[in-house]
Write a structure and sequence with these properties.
heterodimer, A: 360 residues, 16-stranded antiparallel β-barrel, globular, B: 296 residues, 5 helices
């Protein structure tokens, strides 16, 4: 009894102090899974399903606390499941010609709820950001599997399918595409799940999460071919907006070689609302599974914000160590080195961070 | 084994492409660029203006919005529709309700504490994380600059021409096809350039009710008497249309058309591109549904 209270208390404490909707495609590539293997959302991120929770407890963490036969699954009953994510971090930032800054922050805390009113077929899903600040809805959608585990229709507020669903919204590829976990949109998504394929097509307002302000819509598509040790995918998005049309494309791939996972993505954006500006961003990431529960992550990113302008490119290099000491708890320490034009101090900053991440 | 080796080679091809693009890329040396990474002389910000005792919007644009915020808040996919590039920022900030917290304006002239922009960059907003997202907080001197500008009434950029090549609607409040809790006291339209206030009275601006069936253009529309149509004194890119009686109990349509050959235009005499075809002319219309206020 006391153990249960302690587990709940620890979960609540972590939730209060810490979160960002977790999405870690390198874990999927390492394990050879599709996103839908571990997440209730077939496009990944957010709430984990029973398998995802079990995998996190038995395969991911360095050490497991508690009886082997006692697993948290998030399932309250056959029709209802809950989940959450929370991240708290301390950061130190050095900006050239300015004073160093450091701060503790609650990055995000989220709660998930899924009501499966017809199990495996019809569900209602909510992703609510509960901190920082007041509650703010990020996803609220209805998902109906026309064919169980095969073809679904989703309608409501959702994250759009595009490229790698990275946890880091500030990655250049996520920042440039404008499709990340800060910009849910309202619309309809149709998805097809095949043994080695996952396909999604979404039509949404294309207003960056704001209420619709024109008659144009955004069409976003994503296709991924998944094999045990590698995967490859492509995405495209077209936003018909009064402000100007915006076209984005992405190629992404992942490869497992022994204890390492390599991820790569290249994004191209043409934005008429910015004087037909063409931009390119690229990401290369190495994840080395040092041993169970320990991962060293090296990432290099490159951004050309305007292909017609020379010498405006930026890079970001990250060195991050991730450690899952016990189930449902992750710690991350890392350094990010920004390199950009010398005239812009922010583009040449250095950040170091330590983060505590709880999830269930 | 050979087959597995072969498939890995195939997988490597795009990966090598991605990795190569990222790894081969270096940062630019900034030659010929301003602080925003734009060519010097292009305009639109980047070169810090000379010190001034009065906070100006142009300073904020040049030192905060363009070099920092437009990394995300630009273009057709700008988060929450907030575009902070030089051509749109003022019109989408001043007297415009926040999307995250609609009860508060993004910039309330004269009242920095009740401006959502200030709350977001100070980290005291009721919803979401502090801006810039994922980056260090703005220096206090930058926050003070924004506060001072708002405290001084959030004046428009000095010397701004207020015109655009194509004069068009940026957004409306309430948004198009919105369901709004009745009663609706006023409708606001945000343009991409300063509205010529002298044309507002004569131009064909009207609100119509559907006549109870929710359908327009079937002959039973009812014209709603207007009490006031005016351009904001603080934000010359915002037009406010106020009916005599608050809107409720029907579907409504705001139309910006022409009357007796007179249409809305900006201060540079560019006629409104109402139908968004890239050329001047055409009617702009937006509809909204009113829903009854819920009982407490």
């Amino acid at each position: 009894m006391s153990r249960h209270i302690a587990v709940w208390a620890a979960g609540l404490v972590c939730l209060v102090i810490a979160g960002q909707a977790a999405a870690e495609p390198y874990l999927a590539t390492y394990a050879g899974f599709k996103c839908s293997q571990c997440h209730v959302n077939p496009t990944g991120g957010g709430m984990r399903n029973t398998f995802g929770n079990s995998w996190a407890q038995t395969q991911l963490a360095a050490t497991r606390i508690g009886p082997e036969d006692e697993l948290w699954t998030g399932v309250v009953n056959r029709f209802l499941a809950v989940g959450g994510n929370a991240r708290a971090e301390g950061t130190w930032t050095r900006i050239p010609h300015e004073h160093d800054a450091n701060a503790f922050d609650v990055q995000e805390a989220r709660l998930y709820l899924e009501a499966s009113v017809i199990p495996s077929r019809l569900s209602f899903y909510v992703d609510e950001l509960v901190a920082p600040g007041n509650a703010d809805n990020r996803e609220a959608n209805i998902r109906f599997w026309v064919q169980e585990g095969n073809l679904y229709v989703k309608a409501g507020r959702m994250y759009l399918p595009f490229g790698w669903r990275l946890e880091d919204d500030n990655a250049f590829v996520r920042q440039l595409s404008g499709i990340n976990m800060q910009t849910p949109d309202s619309g309809v998504e149709v998805g097809l799940e095949r043994p080695n394929w996952t396909l999604q097509l979404a039509v949404s307002n294309g207003s960056g999460g704001a209420p619709e302000n024109d008659n144009g819509k955004q069409v976003t598509g994503r296709a991924e071919y998944v094999q045990t040790h590698w995967r490859i995918g492509a995405s495209a998005a077209f936003n018909d907006s009064d402000a100007g049309d915006r076209t984005a494309g992405a190629l992404f791939a992942g490869l497992r070689l022994g204890p390492t996972v390599w991820l790569g993505e290249v994004d191209y954006v043409e934005d008429d609302s910015l004087d037909n500006r063409d931009s390119v961003a690229a990401l290369a990431e190495l994840n080395w599974f040092v041993r169970k529960g320990h991962v060293l992550k090296l990432t290099h990113e490159w951004l050309d914000p305007d292909r017609d302008v020379d010498e405006d490119e930026q890079t970001r290099s990250s060195f991050v160590y991730e450690w899952w000491p016990v189930q449902f708890l992750e710690t991350r320490v890392g350094v990010r080195l920004y390199d950009g034009i010398p005239q812009n101090n922010m583009q040449n900053r250095t950040e170091a961070f330590a983060q505590l991440h709880a999830y269930f | 084994m050979m087959e597995m080796f072969g498939t890995r080679i195939h997988a490597c091809a795009p990966l090598v492409l991605c990795a190569g693009a990222a790894l081969a890329g270096c940062a630019g040396n900034g030659e010929g660029l301003d602080a925003s990474g734009r060519p010097v002389g292009e305009g639109g910000g980047g070169t810090p203006p000379p010190p001034s005792t009065q906070a100006s919007f142009q300073q904020i644009q040049d030192t905060i919005f363009t070099p920092i915020c437009t990394a995300c808040h630009a273009g057709a996919a700008a988060p929450l529709g907030l575009r902070l590039d030089a051509g749109n920022s003022y019109a989408l900030l001043v007297n415009v309700p926040s999307v995250e917290a609609p009860a508060i304006l993004r910039v309330t002239p004269g009242d920095p504490d009740n401006s959502y922009l200030v709350q977001k960059i100070e980290g005291s907003a009721s919803v979401g994380a502090r801006m810039p997202l994922g980056g260090p907080p703005l220096p206090q001197s930058s926050i003070d600059l924004v506060r001072a500008w708002i405290a001084e009434g959030a004046p428009a950029p000095a010397g701004a021409s207020g015109t655009a090549d194509v004069f068009r609607v940026v957004t409306t409040i309430p948004a198009a096809d919105a369901q709004v809790v009745a009663p609706v006291e006023a409708l606001h339209v945000i343009f991409n350039a300063d509205v010529d206030a002298t044309l507002v009275g004569a131009a064909g601006i009207r609100i119509e009710a559907s006549g109870g069936d929710g359908v327009f253009d079937n002959g039973n529309e009812v014209r709603v008497p207007l009490a006031d149509v005016r351009v904001s004194a603080v934000n010359p890119r915002m037009l406010t249309v106020r009916p005599v009686a608050p809107l409720s109990g029907d579907r409504f349509r705001l139309v910006l058309g022409a009357s007796a050959g007179i249409a809305l235009a900006d201060v540079g005499a560019h006629v409104l591109d109402g139908d968004a075809d890239g050329r001047a002319g055409g009617e702009f219309s937006v509809t909204l549904d009113t829903v009854p206020e819920r009982a407490p």
